[in-house]
Amino acid sequence: MKQALVCGAGGFIASHMVKRLKQEGFWVRGVDLKYPEFSETPADDFVIGDLRDQSLCREIVDRKYDEVYQFAADMGGAGYIFTGEHDADVMSNSATINLNMVEACRKRNVKRVFYSSSACMYPAYNQEDPNNPNCAESSAYPAAPDSEYGWEKLFSERLYLAYHRNYKMESRVGRFHNIFGPEGTWTGGKEKAPAAMCRKVAQAKDGDTIQIWGDGKQTRSFLIVDECIEGVLRLTRSDKTGPYNIGSEEMVSINQLVEMVMEIAGKKIHVEHIPGPTGVRGRNSDNTLIAKELGWAPSQSLRQGLETTYAWVEEQVRKGQK
Ligand code: NAD
Ligand code: GDD
């Protein structure tokens, strides 16, 4: 039986990964500070612990896993990473986790290690035009991420790639572009735009006004979590190291995103634009390289992903109102 370790398994993407690996027949160990909030984990073993603790990392990497997925990070949406208030924690917590984990994996000579980087590592100067951002993998340097979160991601992807070069570790690096879907953070300050828009629309009545940050003309692309998992597995099990973008190329403005959510909800709601943390002006995944080298491209539209996500967020809102 193949064995996998999933770090951050109490969180959004990693909890979906645990489910997928169990469906594939793996023995799975999850580790996180917390259990998943929205459904029970099917992991064979779930360790509650802090990956900033080097000895814990050594304890959980107690065997030559077939696959290790490193998703644990101190992260959140624009309201968390662009305010500047959490910069020291974000950099220190995530870098410590990555330093500990990569070394623990080297010691046990694990077969494959996937590291989840982010589109936030791309230079801000290529993301100023909302209609024409450049996020090709080759555009990463000269480096100029617009957040400390992005700088830590850039450092850590280089760390995993250095272990590949110097220790022959089979590292794999994916750069995620705004992943969303059911069981993602939807409230509390760390939620990203798709979940935030679904929540605001679900809580509103016809004729109400909801607030969104900025003029709404900033652009992004959003990838549904199932497609992300598929891309991660395709990359991890390939003979390529990366980094590769794992995202959608269906770029929309935040105003268009809200419109789509309102259509799905069947509600007519006014939008008020207010100042807030907005991040880069435009961002879109460029899937040219991953399509060419791994034959991967997402298949679902944003609308399809938002339909399932809206239904799930609406249910959470309803439960909360009881
Ligand atoms: P998430 O916050 O839901 O999951 C991260 C998990 O890591 C959380 O459950 C958290 O408790 C855990 N964690 C944090 N510090 C820990 C510690 N010290 N010890 C043990 N566990 C710890 O985030 P997610 O959306 O599932 O993201 C997963 C990964 O993908 C992260 O590395 C994130 O930076 C990256 N990423 C996500 C997106 C996205 O849009 N969701 C985009 C780019 C990159
Ligand atoms: N979260 C949120 N909540 N964003 C809003 C809101 C709101 O109520 N209103 C407008 N926005 C705008 C933000 O200002 C930003 O311009 C845009 O929607 C997208 O915000 P997020 O989805 O929160 O984050 P992001 O795309 O800027 O960055 C995210 O994606 C990266 C990868 O592409 C973050 O989740 C990063 O952690 C991630 O690495």
From TrEMBL:
Coiled-coil blocks: none
Domain NAD-dependent epimerase/dehydratase: 4-247
InterPro entries named in the record: Epimerase_deHydtase, NAD(P)-bd_dom_sf
Name of the featured protein: NAD-dependent epimerase/dehydratase family protein
One Pfam family matching this protein: Epimerase
The keyword Magnesium appears for this protein: no
UniProt keyword Nuclease present: no
Keyword set, alphabetical order: NAD
